[in-house]
User: Which sequence fits this backbone?
């Protein structure tokens, strides 16, 4: 049984997860690298930067000092994908994971330089400890409001998966398990660029028909690449795949969707990124996934256009037009 947890990362999702685990009755430590932010959270019990309406229970210990963290049964990594490797290396130098029974990744992304999944990077820094992934259509804002939420815990060890599942089981939070950690992580990463595309279609006022078609074809690409990377097709059709794809492509809470809307309205990507504190994982993930698709020779016309828009200077309207003007082909192809 898992009785204590340390949440690594103080963004909106990290804050919501610390809240969920405290409600479940675990002893929770909450770490973030920004001393000013963590001091504010400790004093006010609110993360004014990311989730200002959520009041954190007093039994959550808040700190920015890694050396002050006590060993815990479970470490939950909730940092942007670009920061995962460096953060895991920092944690490895501390005593925080000395008695950990499981390391849980909540980040969605693929490392550009190596093609590594998030759990793989954590495992490289902290070897010998079981790894799990928590993923699915989970907006922090809704979890913080105790709105109904479902997630999936991916782990190769069924007993460990069930132990983590128990930590994320509340009247408003339901979790499932799978042993397909590869499929769950690839699906979670892949949905992000497609949410940007859905947002672009909305920003361009292309209509619901176009957005529905785009999301459906996005799922076909997710299945092709996810299976090529070793995941199972049923995982792509589960919470970590189609579930997360729908939530991210259509929700006003989605950072990737908002980035896409602004691109569709004609704003420059650099200006959009500079205007927000939050990380839209679809931007770096597009580069990682595009490279992976080329290496695996997987056909991804939609991802190709998203990459051209984000990294090659192509206008959003031209990218969408290129998709519509492609040669006709069977739907199953």
Assistant:
């Amino acid at each position: 049984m898992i009785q204590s947890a340390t949440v690594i990362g103080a963004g909106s999702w990290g804050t919501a997860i610390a809240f969920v685990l405290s409600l479940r009755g675990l002893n929770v430590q909450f770490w973030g690298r920004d001393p000013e932010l963590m001091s504010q959270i400790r004093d006010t019990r609110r993360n004014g930067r990311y989730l200002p309406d959520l009041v954190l229970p007093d039994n959550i210990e808040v700190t920015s000092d890694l050396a002050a963290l006590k060993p815990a049964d479970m470490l939950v990594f909730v940092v942007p994908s670009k920061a995962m490797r460096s953060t895991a290396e920092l944690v490895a130098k501390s005593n925080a994971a000395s008695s950990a029974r499981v390391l849980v990744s909540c980040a969605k992304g693929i490392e550009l330089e190596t093609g590594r999944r998030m759990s793989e990077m954590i495992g490289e820094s902290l070897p010998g400890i079981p790894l799990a992934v928590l993923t699915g259509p989970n907006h922090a804002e809704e979890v913080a409001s105790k709105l109904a939420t479902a997630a999936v815990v991916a782990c190769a060890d069924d007993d460990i998966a069930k132990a983590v599942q128990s930590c994320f089981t509340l009247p408003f939070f339901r979790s499932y398990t799978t042993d397909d950690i590869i499929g769950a992580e690839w699906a979670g990463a892949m949905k992000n660029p497609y949410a940007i595309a859905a947002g672009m279609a909305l920003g361009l006022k292309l209509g619901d028909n176009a957005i529905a078609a785009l999301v459906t074809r996005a799922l076909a690409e997710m299945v092709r690449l996810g299976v090529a990377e070793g995941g199972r097709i049923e995982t792509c059709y589960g919470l970590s795949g189609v579930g997360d794809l729908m939530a991210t492509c259509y929700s006003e809470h989605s950072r990737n969707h908002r980035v896409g809307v602004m691109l569709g309205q004609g704003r420059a990507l650099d200006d959009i990124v500079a205007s927000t504190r939050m990380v839209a994982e679809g931007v770096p993930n597009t580069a990682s996934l595009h490279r992976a698709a080329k290496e695996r020779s997987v056909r991804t016309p939609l991802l190709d256009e998203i990459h051209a828009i984000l990294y090659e200077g192509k206008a959003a309207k031209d990218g969408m037009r290129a998709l519509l003007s492609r040669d006709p082909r069977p739907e199953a192809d």
About this structure: The two ends are 46 Å apart (CA to CA).
